[in-house]
Amino acid sequence: MSVIPARYPFTAVVGQDRLKLALILSAISPGIGGVLIRGEKGTAKSTIVRGLGPVAGGRVVELPIGATEDRVVGSLDLTGVLREGRADFTPGLLAQADGGVLYIDEVNLLADHLVDVLLDAAASGRVTIERDGVSHTQAADFVLVGTMNPEEGELRPQLLDRFGLAVDVVAAPDVDERVEIISRRMEFDADPGAFAQRYAADEDTLRSRIAAARAAVRQVSLPVAQLRRIAGICAHLGVDGLRGDIVVARAAAAHAAWRGAGAVDTDDVAVAVELALPHRRRRDPFDDSGFTDEQLDEAMQAGDEAAGPEEPEPDPDGDGPDDGGPGGGEDSGPIGDGPVIGDDSPGDRAEPQPDTGAQSSPAPAGALFGTRSSGAPRRMRPLKAAGIGDGDPGRRSRARSTRGATTHAVDFETGRPLHLFGTVLAAAGRTASDGRGAARLTLVTDDLRGAQRVGREGNLVVFVVDLSGSMTARRRLTAVSELCVDLLRDSYTRRDRVAVVTARGSAALVSVPPTRSVELAVRRLAEVRTGGRTPLAEGLLAATEVIDGAARREPQRRPLLVVLTDGRATAGPDAPRRAAAAAAGIARRGIASVVVDCEQGMIRLGMAHELAARLGAQCLTLDELTPAALHRSALRRPGGIVAPRRAS
């Protein structure tokens, strides 16, 4: 009786040829740096990655996003230390992935402290543990493969740059292809063993071809003209640093080896550029992550100019490396049902925009709010919630965490770092209480103390943006638009979730429900209309509903309410009183709030300050969020702005 495999065969996956090629090139030349797979749910991302290991000759180790740091880097066996005095080290997932593939599903949701560890290991090929006087180093040379849904937020730039190749995947729009996908999946679910046997020959062929290409890639020549072409393309696209140039060169050589050629040609470079450079052009979280066919053509033309005159074409009747031998032509090999890179492949089509469930505007159509960048990213004044929370790691408010500054010793729990000094003090106190003050210090399990550390957490930042007619004077609208982009950009860097409530006309609407994708928030906000009266009470109430709904899903994530308004409430009967009541209700609940006063001009009514007083919030003007104001504030009141919390 044969053993039923748990994996879906790599060669049985329909379509996604661009993704499969990227994974194969990384297996041929691990120095490329792995693959980042961006796409919506249900596009076979995980299935393809898990099927790579057997055909690439290495194991696939999965790193859960909720893993503890000790599980990732390894740890000492405390039981062995206490019982037998042996300092045995238990390897973590990074060491287990040495020589294979480290796979992280939803890599953009990985905690920041694990990202730091991952970056160190990816850069050095080793994992080093320095903790409580113990030092240990193990090899951790792996191919990094990550999947992510862009709607859940982007990667930190440092981690994004560590991925050699990046591929955007979408579901197949072709009906026949979708039918074939469903049919194969149902066959696999009905009898995995028989299904795997059906593709066994294709798997063996692909395994042999990858092995042959891996053996040959070091002998592939890279002509100077192609090196100049690569450098010219990267310079034209404004790629930061030289890692992009190196990755393109390695990927082009791997592609040449994959098709059985002895030298890199222009087609190899074009394939490598398409896979290795789109994600390296982003300098801002709101920049597009790819480039169009026109941009690619322009870049290739720049490369042609840098490469200089082309050498004479070889005799088409002669025998060249592309005419036969292992690997045959570019399209040979059982890795898909279409060309490896083609103009009509599913990966080339525009990704449909996600539906966030945002309501349509309740007010008559006005001018688009738009979102205007202030240019280079500006450092924003730190807004944070008071006290110490327990939310997910981030960079905004203080929180208890497994990393950060140690504050004191607490009871020891599994997964909590050891407080060495507190443990020794507990053992010394027990020895003294036994009347053995001069006796040799002994350590028992009850003496263990954990370290309480304080780091930073990400918050739920809910923006209430007043888009009424009083806010839409040209100068003010431009200033508020730029400020919104800067605040959202700041939330991106601090690893927050964000939501946007817009108030105009007679009602407020949730333009962006809570999301990690600040890019999505900017895009949605740009499409909102402006003008009409100011439903300020409705905006505040809508924000509290957003906060309540998010609390049911993530009870540990603390909210921060940021209201951008001139403070006028004009929509509906008794509008000022209702706005004051809504603000007072938020203050009673202790929700951390900040009011940004958008009023400008010589004559100011000061209504935003009155709103801030009712919210129990700090009130800032637009000018006070500038870098110059930051410097002045630091001299007067170090520590940033802390929105006060009141007991409910």
From TrEMBL:
Residues 332-344 have a biased composition (Low complexity). Residues 460-596 form the VWFA domain. Pfam families: AAA_5, AAA_lid_2, VWA_2. SUPFAM superfamilies: P-loop containing nucleoside triphosphate hydrolases, vWA-like. Residues 307-322 have a biased composition (Acidic residues). PROSITE patterns: VWFA. It comes from the Bacteria. InterPro entries: ATPase_dyneun-rel_AAA, ChlI/MoxR_AAA_lid, Mg-chelatase_DI-like, P-loop_NTPase, VWF_A, vWFA_dom_sf. GO terms for molecular function: ATP binding; ATP hydrolysis activity. Residues 301-407 are annotated as: Disordered. PANTHER family: CHELATASE-RELATED, MG-PROTOPORPHYRIN IX CHELATASE. This is Putative magnesium chelatase subunit. It comes from Gordonia amarae NBRC 15530.
